Amino acid sequence: MTSLRYLTKSRFKLALECPTKLFYSGKSEYANQSIDDAFLHALADGGYQVGELAKHYFPGGETITTLDTETAISQTHELLKRENIIIYDAAICFQQLLIRVDILVKRPDHIQLIEVKAKSYQKSEDADFLSTKGTVIPKWKPYLMDIAFQKFVAQKAFPRYSVSSYLMLTDKETVCATDGLNQKFKLVKDATGRVRVISNLSAEDIATPILTKVNVDHILNDWLRGEPLEELSFRTFAETVDLFLQAYTNDQLIATPPGKQCKDCQFTATEADKSEQLKCGFSECWQRQLNFNNQQLLEPTVLSLWNCKTIDHFFKSGIFLLKNLSPQDLNTDGALSSPLTQSERRWLQVSKVKNKDTGAYFDAAGMRQEFANYQYPLHFIDFETCTSAIPYFKGMSPYETIAFQFSHHVLHADGRVVHQTQFIDTAPGSFPNFEFVRALKKALEQDCGTIFRFGIHENTVLNHIAKQLTHSIEPDRDELITFIRTMTYQGEKKNRIYGPRCMVDLCELVKLYYYHPATQGSNSIKALLPAMLNSSVYLQALYGKPNYGSPTFPSLNFQDHCWLTKVGEQVIEPYKQLPKLFADASEHDIDLLSEEDELNNGGLALVAYGKLQLTEMSDYERRELEHALLKYCELDTLAMVMIYQGWLAMLNNQTMPNIQ
Ligand code: SF4
């Protein structure tokens, strides 16, 4: 028997991103850049644990566990014959619309739909999800559309009942009443690959809820009233549902004009996908809608323009390729100043494409001035952190930062590079932050050398830990806070207070003085590193021998390693040389997790930390994973050193290193 094609809430949400996606969704012949592995997803996301915790606030319910949709629908139907019941993961369908409700509370003539989200809510900021102007706060729209779809279907399926709708969210303003709550949820994968959460909570754990249930009917009733909605391209909610339902059930494509939504489209094919004959939805859309030919499909589009807020405007003006932009389109006159303004940097990216110039831009004079301010030995640090929806300790709020790892390289004035220090604490249930800062202090207080970070993450994390310290009873808390203040800044841009040894952001130097076309507009360290390695003869000479992790090039995790491996003329990305963090994960998922940029602080490390915290592992597995994490973080700081060395060599017109 062929199963019905249901328009589910996930597909409804997908179609809201772009209606064309409905056509590609679920078709194995199309490449899809979403993470396949539900377990990795669960580790990265935290939603499963929050979902499980929410059930404890509505005890006594029945769970629909079957994987078969039709059985789930009929089991829910049976249970709903009771006057009063709570159902977890209820399956409700109306015609070919299907919803799975996280928590459904049924009373004799009323149904409550509760959608649980691992999403931080602050009453003082988010209130009733409306801005002061009375419009829906944009970041909440996708969640509200999700529950609106559920309400729409439930009202159709149960016309005799009144239906009220709620979002259940982690309340950022509460504090956890007990220790170790996070550790009371374990993730397991059953034989079918399905992810389950096993929890072991006490009455005390749930006595002070950290989740809050917020009614959303004031917005949903408006949306479902039947008026055309701007957010639905001036269709009513019912018309929109019907449009998507007809398209999906009849497997018809809704053609959508390409626009800024294409930037994050998952239906794009990588080279690896193409070699497996997978189709590229993105290319099909751009061929169909814009008449792009194969050559045009290979050219950089306006979607890759760095930090650009006016992409929609270019699409409306019929400009789709970078090479067709003019300086005026970017509000600049085409000249470059020192340091670069943001508009100039965008123009630089465009002009490199227009001129087919593959060489790097380097403002030597500007960079030289910056370098003159730095004091040796230079320190390069990188943190790995996570935020956990469910707190680890009594007194903590949801989504507080956990800093579990750092790496620290030193570059001396004579050119020596030393992997000097590292810290890692992934023990389940351990709160590492204060030991983390103690170890960092010890590592950095030996001298007054300049400290480099890449991005704002390290500054944000340290300020957060300083706040945690102020509420702590740590004996050395004042000392630790003072240390943090010396190397960070606080406050908004206009009124910033800088510590005397405030960290220097290498990423800012990139934005102001350096651009390599091979990065295609990305400033992530994972894009920069291969670009620099490929173009710097100096770096190739320095890292082209198996000497990393030798007495002259000390490392805490590598031995006699050569970072420069080439295929033909191209350097293999150093990150690709690292051990696989998850043996059973596909290359596809690993690549997607690796793509997380420095602001998200590395998806791979975060997922590895989740695995170490929330799953049962043997000591051997644990050691292996920790060791791999150490190598990843070491490469992050080594990459910063390499970038710095590459620039230094350019400033000195040096092609061969003096040492090693
Ligand atoms: S490429 Fe653009 S238009 Fe096509 S499915 Fe993706 S987002 Fe939609």
The count of β-strands is 20
- Termini separation comes to 69 Å
The radius of gyration computed from the alpha-carbon positions, rounded to a whole number of angstroms, is 27 Å
Main sheet: strands, sense, barrel? 7 strands, mixed
The fraction of residues in strands falls at 15-25%
Cofactors and ligands: iron/sulfur cluster
Uncertain runs: 597-602
How many alpha or pi helices?
25
Shape: globular
Bin the helical content. Answer: 25-40%
What value does the average pLDDT take? 92
User: In terms of structural class, how would the helical and strand content be classed?
Assistant: alpha/beta
Care to describe what's here?
This protein is of the alpha/beta class and 660 residues long. The protein is built from 25 helices and 20 strands. The strands form 6 sheets. Strands 1, 2, 3, 4, 5, 6 and 9 form a 7-stranded mixed beta sheet that branches. The protein has a 5-stranded mixed beta sheet with strand order 13-12-11-14-17, sandwiched between helices. Iron/sulfur cluster binds next to helix 12.
